[in-house]
Design goal:
3 domains, alpha/beta, nine-stranded mixed sheet, globular, D-Maltodextrin-Binding Protein, domain 2, 10 helices
């Protein structure tokens, strides 16, 4: 008798792969850890391959597991699209979504493309601004939810992904020729601006703000001119700029967390679905 990949098993497998822990996966799918373990045992019997390796930090995919994850995500997307189309259960409406420039440049295309494939009738309206400005928009419900940066130690935040802050400069430009060190930074109340000033002050390195803007494009343009250095999240570093480290001029910067913030205590169902999509997709990008 031929075996087949069951949708229910694949859905549980994807959640475990994304959360990397049975406890968190069990909460998300509404099953017990024992039931999830039995499902994964069944799936491993079907594919005749070990899919997970237990480590001290949770569940890690094996190589066959990584290969299956790609297929499972594609199968589930096609399944959900078909069900929404045939049964008329697809979501519709509009979401007002806030996102910082650097995350928008790196994450937004794939986040929106995947969500649109599942819910083609939903319109996502995007507002780009630094986290501090987005929180102001959230406070007055000008957006439904926002992707924001928080300190890594933020105890009340459900951190979805962590990103190190890094120094960037134009290749070949030597920081030693500048005194004070010229910086191109975001708004004064943003985490990258505060972190840069803090670590340089503690290191005793003189600096000046040569350019201040909430626009990532503006900051990177000044860096490309060779007239200043900037601080950005590592994932947002353009390919033509260099990450600077290992010298006294570049003290270590902190890592920040990424999470979502709702505008309402009881967000609409569509907003919650989009937030769940972000939580499931962002760690994989």
């Amino acid at each position: 008798m031929s075996l087949s990949l069951e949708i229910d098993l694949l859905r549980s497998f994807v959640v475990i792969a994304e959360t990397r822990a049975l406890t968190r996966a069990a909460d998300k799918v509404g099953r017990t850890q024992s039931a999830l373990s039995q499902q994964m045992k069944r799936l491993e019997e079907i594919v005749d391959q070990p899919l997970f390796q237990r480590t001290g930090r949770g569940m890690r995919l094996t190589y066959p597991g990584e290969r299956l994850l790609v297929h499972a995500q594609r199968i589930l997307r096609a399944h959900d699209e078909a069900m929404a189309d045939v049964c008329g259960t697809g979501l519709s409406g509009a979401i007002r979504f806030g996102c910082p420039d650097d995350y928008a440049a790196v994450f937004l295309p794939r986040l929106l493309r995947r969500f649109a494939s599942l819910h083609p009738q939903v319109q996502v309206e995007v507002l780009c601004a630094p986290t501090t400005r987005l929180l102001e928009h959230v406070a007055v419900q000008a957006v439904d939810l926002a992707l924001i940066s928080v300190t890594e130690s933020a105890s009340d935040a459900d951190i979805i992904r962590r990103e190190p802050l890094v120094w960037v400069g134009y290749p070949g430009v030597d920081a030693a020729q500048f005194d004070p060190l010229p910086l191109a930074l975001s708004d004064p109340d943003t985490l990258d601006h505060l972190a840069a000033c803090d670590v340089l002050q503690r290191a005793g390195r003189a600096f000046r703000i040569a350019y201040a803007s909430s626009s990532l494009a503006g900051l990177t343009a000044v860096v490309r001119s060779g007239q200043a250095f900037a601080v950005v999240t590592q994932t947002a570093v353009p390919s033509d700029l260099a990450i600077l480290s290992g010298e006294p001029a570049w003290p270590a910067l902190p890592t920040i967390g990424i999470t979502v913030k709702y505008a309402r205590k009881r967000p609409a169902h569509l907003t919650r679905v989009f937030a769940d999509h972000i939580r499931a997709t962002l760690p994989l990008l």
